[in-house]
Amino acid sequence: MDLNLVTLVVLFFAVGAIYSAAGFGGGSSYLAILSYALTNFSEMRTLALVCNLVVVTGSVWLFWKQGHVIAKRVIPLVAISVPASFLAAQMRFSQATFFGLLGATLVTASLAMLIQPKRTDHNRRVASWWDEAAIGGGIGFLSGLVGIGGGIFLSPMLHLLRWDTAKRIAATASVFILVNSLAGLAGLLVSDQFQIGDVNRLWLLVAVLGGGQLGVRFCLSQVAATRIQSLTAVLVMIAGVRILWRVV
Description:
Layout: H1 5-21, H2 27-37, H3 41-65, H4 71-79, H5 81-89, H6 95-114, H7 129-146, H8 151-160, H9 166-190, H10 202-220, H11 225-247
């Protein structure tokens, strides 16, 4: 099934808007879409990570201006995740192995997003520095393997832990995606797997930039945040199941 460039641009714009509204970059769905449009596996991973960067860079800037990024709380989560993502991104798999891993992790992440306790700002839990570093490191390694930023794994975990407010979790997930996407791209570069392909693919970056800016402003206004997260979870579930179906 081939998707033309116009269709890709529309889909990437929509993914950027929906995912950024929940504090994500959309890497998982970019990979799912690209799996129908491209055959070059290295191009798919590279494009997904670059699109992640475009979306979350703007998101992090807006979250920072709004005061939702707390550096001392983010550092433990990214301290080990960055080198872990860098190393994992250099690993090579067959396409069947990669998509099997990606599909399984997306389904798991979507379930974690859907099955969550009711959150309030009055019953937060405090994890130790090392606990948060271990969580970040594990998610960073898994993210490096599948070629995404990892926010889709981190955010449900932080919500389950009642780590902080929904806005701060979204902001933290955006920072996490930013640094891990950079680490993943660096890993692809040093392992000679970094490939953008046709120059026309740059239109995809324009699409996710526009969609991402629209989505993050929706998130910052906190309009129907729970519905946005549920919609995101359903989209991730669909992408994961479709990828697994293709592998089987």
